[in-house]
Amino acid sequence: MNKAFIIVCSISYLLLLFAIAYWVEQRFKKSKKTLNKSWIYALSLAVYCTGWTYYGSVGRAVTNGPEFLSIYIGPSIMCALFVPLLRKLLRICKTQRINSIADLISTRYGKNYTLGIIVTLCCVIGIIPYIALQLKAISASFHIITNRNNIAVDIWNDETFIIAGILSIFIIIFGTRSVDASERHEGIVAAIAFESIVKLIAFLAVGIFVTYFLFDGFTSVSTAAHIAGFEQFFTLNKGFENNDWLVMILVSMLSVIFLPRQFQVSIVENTNERNIYKAMWLFPLYLFLINLFVLPIAMGGKLLLSNLVNADTYVLSLPLHFHQPILGLFVYIGGLSAASGMIIVETIALSTMLSNHLILPVIFSSKKIKIDNEKSTVRNIILSRRASIIAILLLACLYDKWIASSTSLVSIGLISMAAVAQFAPATIGGLYSKLITRQGAIASIIVGFSIWFFTIIIPSIITAGYLSPSIMTNGLWGIEWLKPQSLFGLNTMGLLAHSFFWSMLFNIVSLVLISILTSATRQEEYQAELFVNIYKYEGVTGGPGMWKTSAYLSDVNTLLSNFIGKNRADNLLNSYAQRHKISLDQKEADPRIIDFSEKILTGVIGSASARFLVSNIAKEEEISIDKVLSIVKESQQVLELNKELKKKSTELSKATEQLTEVNEQLMKIDVLKDEFLYTVTHELRTPLTSIRALSEILFDNPDIEEEQRQYYLEGIVKEIERLSHLITQVLNLERYESGRQKLNYSAVDIAALINEVIDSLHPLIREKNISIEFIPPDTMALLQCDKDMIRQVVYNLVANAIKFVPENDGSIKIICRADFDELQVWVMDNGKGIPVELRELIFDKFFQAKNQTIQKPTGSGLGLAICKRIVEMHQGRIFVEPISPQGAKFVFTLPNS
Amino acid sequence: MKKILVVDDDPYILMSLEFLMKKNNYQVMIARNGTEAMDSINTLKPDLILLDIMMPDVDGYSICKHVKSKKELKNIHVVFVSAKTKEADIEKGYQLGASLYITKPFSTRDLMKKVNELLQ
C-alpha cells in the first residue's frame, strides 16, 4: 500500500485518539460525569494486551503451541481470585495519594528516597525494552503494510522515530496537564478503553477471516494443520517440559499489578473500588476473546504462507497475502492501537516515577533552585515530566536500534514482566506484615533484580555482541557456577523459569533475612501500621498523624500554593479545616493540617519528596516509637469513641423520640383531663344554679305561698341529690380509670342480682307504666366478679332503658344466658334506638352533654362510661345493637373463669 | 309592661327565672327549648330574652344570630344565661350581639339589677 496513505491513516487514528481524550476531558470538566466508569475501567485494563499479544502470541503459538495462553491465565486468576489484595492496595493508594509503584514501595517503607530511586531505576531498565518492543511492532507492521519488505524486517529506520515523536506529543499534551499525578487522566483512560475495543475487533476480524473465509471453521483449520504435521499446535510440548508455562502464569499474575502501566490503570486511574467487581469478569472475558483465534491464525499462517514469513507478522500478512487491503489496514490500525496504548500508559507511569523520584528530589534539595515561586515550581515539575517522557521514548528507540534485534516479541515482554515481579515480595509482604524493614525491601529488590539482569539481560547483550561470550560458556570471572543460563549448575529449566526461580529465591531469602537482622524506624512502623491495618483507619484520615510538629500555617500554605496554586491551596485547606473543625486563625498549623498538606504534595511529587519538603518547614519533635504507637492507638480509640458516640447519640435520639411521644400522650391526656374537668364543672353548674336560685327566692320572699314553697324546696332537694349522684359517679369513674380500684371478687348469682336491681327500680317502672320481663338462664349462673360493680352496670343499663322507653307503651326485656365460656346479659328496650354512628360514642364520658341534638341528659352523662369501664375491668365486652322494629339492645359479657 | 322571654331546658331554672321576672313586674313568656323560643320571638316580639345556650334542638347562639339578623327583631336585648364559662364562649356571645352574658350559677339579685338597667 501507499506509504503516504498509511502515514495519513496512522496520524488520523492518533488524532482520533486525541479527539476522544479531549472530548472526554471536556465533558468531565463540565459535568463531572463520564461514560460508564466501570466499563471504561475494565476495558482500560486491557492495555495489558499490547502489540505482543496482537502480533506476538501467534508467533509464540507457532513455536510453542498453546503455551502462550499461560500469560493470559495469570491475569485472569489475579483478577478473579485476588480481589481482596487489589482492594487493599487500592484503598491504601487512595488514602495515601500514591501515584506509582515506586511511590507505593517507598511510602510503605517510611517514605524512603532510596527505595523510590531503586524501584524507578529497575522499572526503567526493565520496561524500556518493552516499550522498544512496541515501537518495533509498529514500525514492523508499517513496513509490511507498505510492501517494503514482505519477509524480513529491517529493524531500524526513521519511522520509529516519527512514531515515537507523535506519541510523545500526545502523552505530553494529555499526560502532563495537571501537576497532581494522583489526579486521573480521564481523557487518556477513555482513549485507552477505545483502543482496547479497536484492537479486539480487529483481531477478531482477522480470526474470523482466517477461520471462516480461508478455511471452513475451527475444525477445518485444525484438521489441515494436523494433516500437514504441525504437531506443536496440539501438544503441550516445549514450554511445558521446562516449567516455563508455570512461571509464565506466576509472572503474568504479578505483572498485572506491578507493571507500571497496569498499576497506572488499575490503581492510580481507578476512582471506585466497585469498578473491580466488573473487571473481575469482564477483563478475563476480554482476554479469552482476544485469544480465541490465536491458534487458527497461527495454523493458517503456517499452512498458507511461506516459511520465510516471520510468524510474528501472520496477523497482518495473512489478509495482505489474500488481497484484503481494507482488512489489512484495519488490522494494522488494531496493532497500532495495541502498541500505542501500551506506550502511552507505560510512558506516563514511568515519567511520573522518573520525575518524582529522580529529578524532583535533585531539584528540591539543590540550594540553587528556589521553590518559593508558584509558577516556577509548577513549571519545574511539568518540565521534568516532559523531559522524562522524551527521555524514555528516546531510550526505547536506542534500545530498539542496538539490542533488540534477535529476540522475538513475546520474550521481551516476558523479560519485563519478570523484572517487575521482583517488586512483589517487598510489596505484598509489606501489605500483610509489619515485620519487613526498609533494608530488607532494598536488599530483596536489588538482589532479585540483579539476578534477573544477569540471567536474562546479560545473555541478550552477549548475543547482540556487546560482551564477550566467555561469560556464557565459562561463567562470570571464570566461575563455573556463575553461568548466566545455568546458575549453580541448574540447567534443567527454560531461560525464563531458570531466571525467575533464582531471582525470586534470592529475593525472598534476602527480604526475610535482612528484615530479621534490621529493625524498622518509627516512620516505617507508622507506615507499616497504616498499610497492614488499612481498614482499621478508615475514617481516621486527618487523625493526628506522624507530624508532632510545629510549623507556621503561612509556611504550609505557601508551600502548598507553590505546587497547586494559591486558590486551590486555600480551598483545600479551608474545606479540610471545616470538615475537621480546625481553626485556621492560629499562627501555628494544626498537625492534621500539616499531615493533610503532605498528602496533597504526595499526589503531586511523590511521598518522599513531599515528606522532605514538609520537613523543611516543620520542626519535628523527636518522638519515640512508643509515642508513635500510642498516636496510632489514639486515633484508633478516637475512631472507636466516635463509633460509640454515634451509637450513644442514636440511642439518645431514640430516647428523645420516645420522650416526645410520651409527652404528646401526656399532653393529650392532659387535654382530655381538662376537658373532663370542664365538663364536670359544667355539669355541676346546672343543679347548682337551680339550688342557688330557688334558695335565694325562698330567702327573699318569705311571703311565698306554702304550696309553691313546698315545690321549690322539693326542687332543691332533688337537685342536691342529682349533684351528689354526679359527684359520686365522677369519683367512681376516676377511681376505675386510675386503676386504684381493686376488684372484690366473689361468687355472684347473676340472676338474683338482676332481680334485685329490677326490684329497686320498681317505683320508676310503675310510675312510667311500662312492662319489664326478665328471662334468667336455664341453670343457676354463679360467676366470679365484683358484685357491687356489676350491680351498678345492670342498674345503669336498666335505668337507661326505663328513661328512654315511651311512657305506657314501654317494654323492657332482660335476658341472661350462660355459655360455657362467658355469660351474656341483654337489656332490650323499645325506645328510639341508637343511630349507628353513635354506637361507640355513647360509651364516652359526658357524651350526652356534648351532643346537643339528642335528648338532654337526665342523668350524669357518665353511666355508660362507668359500665364500659367496669365490664372492661372484668375482661368483658359491652356494646349496643339495634332491634326491630325499634329499640336498642345493650349487651355485656363477662368471662366465665 | 315590658315583655321578657325566658328560655331554658332545665325546669327548675326556668321556674326560678319566671318567678323572678314576674315579681319584678314584667310580662313573662317561657320556652323549654330552642324551637319554642323561635316561635315566641317571632310572634310575641319580647323586649328582652334570657337565653340558655346548651339546648337539645336549637342552641342559644343560633337564636341570638337569628334575632340580630332580623331588622324588626334586632333591638331585642339578648341576655345569655349559661353554664358555659370559657372565655371563648363568652366572647362569642358578645360578638353575636348579646347585651349581657351571665354565667350559671348566678345571683338572683344581681341578675335582676342588670335586667332592670337594660330595660329602663
Could you tell me the radius of gyration of chain A in angstroms? 48 Å
N-end to C-end Cα span of chain A: 107 Å
Globally, the shape of chain A reads elongated
CATH-scheme architecture of chain B: 3-Layer(aba) Sandwich
Number of discrete helical segments of chain B: 5
* Strand neighbour order, sheet with most strands of chain A: 6-8-9-11-10
Broad CATH class of chain B: Alpha Beta
Number of domains of chain A: 4
Quaternary structure type: heterodimer
Which runs of chain A of at least 5 residues are low in confidence (pLDDT < 50)? 150-156, 540-547, 852-857
Tell me the distance between the termini of chain B. 11 Å
Task: Figure out the total of helices of chain A.
Answer: 35
Q: Which superfamily, in CATH terms, is the homologous superfamily of chain B?
A: Response regulator
Unreliable parts of chain B: none
Number of domains of chain B: 1
Please give the largest β-sheet of chain A: 5 strands, mixed
Strand content of chain B: 15-25%
